[in-house]
Fold this protein.
Amino acid sequence: MAVEEEGLRVFQSVKIKIGEAKNLPSYPGPNKMRDCYCTVNLDQEEVFRTKIVEKSLCPFYGEDFYCEIPRSFRHLSFYLFDRDVFRRDSIIGKVAIRKEDLPKYHNRDTWFQLQHVDADSEVQGQVHLELRLSEVITDSGVVCHKLATRVVECQGLPIVNGQCDPYATVTLAGPLRSEAKKTKVKKKTNNPQFDEVFYFEVTRPCSYSKKSHFDFEEEDVDKLEIRVDLWNASNLKFGDEFLGELRIPLKVLRQSGSHKAWYFLQPRDNGSKSPKPDDLGSLRLNVVYTEDHVFSSDYYSPLRELLLKSADVEPVSASAAHILGEVCREKQEAAIPLARLLLHAGRVVAFVSAIASAEVQRTQDPNTIFRGNSLTSKCIDETMKLAGMHYLHVTLGPAIEEICQSHKSCEIDPVRLKDGENLENNMENLRQFVDHVFHAITTSGVSCPTVMCDIFFSLREAAAKRFQDDPDVRYTAVSSFIFLRFFAPAILSPNLFQLTPHHTDPQTSRTLTLVSKTIQTLGSLSKSKSASFKESYMATFYEFFNEQKYADAVKNFLDLISSSGRRDPKSVEQPILLKEGFMIKRAQGRKRFGMKNFKKRWFRLTNHEFTYQKSKGDPPLCSIPIENILAVERLEEESFKMKNMFQVVQPERALYIQANNCVEAKDWIDILTKVSQCNQKRLSVFHPSAYLNGHWLCCRASSDTAAGCTPCTGGLPANIQLDVDGDRETERIYSLFLTYMAKLEKMQEACGSKSVYAGPEQEEYSTFVIDDPQETYKTLRQLIAGVGALEQEHAQYRRDKFKKTRYGSQEHPIGDRTFQSCVRQQSETSTHSI
């Protein structure tokens, strides 16, 4: 979800690899071991949780997580928990990375020391405060000075144990005094509107003077401060929970008698010393945080046109897209935005065909064709993920679900067999699962997306033309992608492909590993099957599949998905599952508050309907056809005093739903919007608040059928598979070119060197693929000019925004380190310019 600013959109996203923890403190009991899991939090809001690794003080996770960040945040935090069956899980320690520090660790494996978690340091949110110092003349004619402190509102307070009932205490503190006052408690909201004013006497009465300024002693003011503490009113016996504080010295009122600003809440400074961080162990993480500032489409026209014509450049190694793959440190970071942009513009097949043909011409051994991590391989991988995800779900979903639910033992390694298990029975169980998966794959050719089939056709033709003496190369060129890089990884780790909602248990994971190995070997069509396995027990098991019918089925499948004009391009009739999970819905027609209003239900979205049931597998309690969804929008928190709510608007009424966190709410809103985007009766306006007590809370209209009062947010394309923001992808590519500008300039030098010097190639230039130095140099010159023009636009935008930004505004509260960093950068830029 983009944050709209003047003239551009801002997107935030984070990709995290949670590696492992080590040297965790032992459990204070006879067992010593712990059952640990790790959570990812935006400030205090949990957005992801790993599997539980049992009985270990050095748990390995190896899990990846990606999300679009729909709101501002200050810290990206990781909490390590020890599961407790009988009590609340205990926190071992945490890693908290400030937002402004994330670039330091960009895409680098880093060990972070775990820190102790102190309730006084777990804060988030901001406070809007106003201070005003006034002269007051008493009845006796003397003057004293009073301070009016107005607590206006708070934003983004944390949810504590599922609820937030905040209140504030306001204290005027000094060396010899401490006077405290308290606001009312605001129920069920983490964005409370207080708007309460408290008065404090600052100075003793003195002789009245007609001076225009306040007559008080400067040293007294320096010693006084206003302290605002935020608390969550709790019914627990442990007392109210601390949410954060801020301290404002009264010297801010020296130049003016009033001060109004937003402040970030800060941890409480209680003077205690935390234990050494190395007592708690450490956590290995790889974090990639990106923040894209996307201008309107016309800004990107020169760079975008240069990229989109890459397939037509001769040779293709001189094209802008190929050059991006040459200069990036990893092919993957170039392939992701490239494939998305080219797929969005309908140019991905032409470009992949061109670079695949060039790669095949450089390949000497047909057995190694497309086996490296080249730009070709990475672009095809990304295209399959984008265009083929629903095909993958339709093909593998039922078989994976059967394996996960059956819990049959399939261990065929004699060393790993448990007591009471039979090797022959296990082999038969595994054979049945492999047969089910194999049949699902080899009969799915008619459903393979057209764009994937067109790419496979070009791979097959290029390989067969290059290696005319090898009759199997036309199959291996395609199977190396569809089996090795598409189906096998999805079977091995179904949760990464949304085939399962969570990690599978160890026994099921082992079964999926054995199935994946077998399917991968079946699809490879290698001549010596037994030699494909390192383990003797796998070679023995594979004897079940030495029949010719398996090889014939694979070849027929590969022929079907790589033959031009092979089938009727009819859409798949069976429903495609898009998303499912538990959320909380509000019953219609009930009172505003009360537990009975809200019920936990299992929601399920397909391309045909949106349903919910009591639990997974139960018959639907309600079914909404996709064509009946008129709008999907966020619901203002004020409606039910609940966070992360959205509404699905139907012809008769709206269904109000609460997601578990902000990331999940965004995902549901996005996918529901996409799938219903082409509905003819979609609304252009909606009500951002609920209809309660006989009127709409937003516009106060009394009729429940009154037209909306707010324009609907911009929709997204209905084609979910190809939902790509072309401008955002071009911005990503621009950022990559800017990052690797030194390599672009080095490549220019290499082109010049090759053009004028026919001798041995210099070692520093040998890493670049340059088939035509003159054509490559021409493209490089255009790229550097286009990137430079965009950088000037970004620099001008930063300067303009910096001039307009006020420190202490809601966008940049006092205590915002990101803004302070921006101030330093602008200062350095100005100095450099001078």
Observations:
- Residues 375-406 form the longest helix (32 residues).
- Residues 412 and 424 are 8 Å apart (CA to CA).
